[in-house]
Amino acid sequence: MPKPAVSEVWDRANESNFFKLLSAETLVVVLIGPGGVGKGTVARRLLELDSRLWLSRSWTTREPRPTESGNEYFFVTREVFDDAISRDFFYEWADFHGNLYGTPRPHPPHGRDVVLEIEVVGARQVRERDAHAVIFLLTAPTMELLEKRLRGRGDHEEHIARRLESTRHEVENGRELADFEVVNDDVERASREILSILEGLRQSRRIPS
Questions:
Q1: Do the domain assignments include residue 5?
Q2: CATH code of the domain covering residue 181
Q3: What's the DSSP call for residue 63?
Q4: 66 occurs within a structural domain
């Protein structure tokens, strides 16, 4: 599919009010973890289970995978992405394995909490912007399962090798940053564990100090 031009992107941005500021009461939920750990699958299940959550759609300069429909990311050219950086458009962004990934400043519907599915580098930027953001590190039960998941989503061998090589580094850095670590041995179980934690955090926010 052709990637949109710079002018087309900013027409959409203005229509969608991407520059609206987050409410102080909005909970920012961040999912991080190595490639193939299932962040996207867990994010989608969280939204199915909890109508109070809203997923922010990220941008990327990489090409869609054969298994993707094109709705997983907003796929743009590097020119468009660089132009967005110059406009201070992103809540966070990172260069990962030669491709750029970024999250526009979220504008969730009223009363909804934000879910971000991002890289560890981007999560550090979110933490700097919002000390109250809740960061979950997703890990796989075994490296063998992680490799199987990477191959199952249609990545090139070179990309799989780079992802596996960086996995330990991503997990180590993620553990330094994350508030909670959840093993994604089963999507349903992992998703409900995250929701249980979020409900506790929501309850604590309702209690007057």
A1: no
A2: 3.40.50.300
A3: P
A4: no
Q: pTM value?
A: 0.78
8 Å CB contact between 100 and 115: no
Q: How many CB atoms lie within 10 A of CB 79?
A: 13
Q: Position of tokens 């009223």?
A: 110
**pLDDT tens figures, 42-79:** 999 999 999 999 999 889 998 887 877 767 788 999 99
Domain that holds residue 116: 21-56+111-206
**pLDDT of 207 strictly over 60:** no
- Do residues 76 and 3 make contact, with C-beta atoms less than 8 angstroms apart? yes
List, in order, residues 6 or more apart from 201 with CB less than 8 Å away.
Answer: 27, 134
Contact 128, 92 (CB under 8 A): no
Q: Facing residues of 28 across strands?
A: 114
Residue 158 covered by a domain? yes
Is residue 49 one of the residues assigned to a domain? yes
Residue 92 exposed, middle or buried by CB count within 10 Å (0-12, 13-18, 19+) = buried
Q: Please give the Cα distance from 184 to 25 (Å, whole number).
A: 29
Residue 69 φ/ψ, nearest 5 degrees:
-90, -15
> How many domains does the chain contain in total?
1
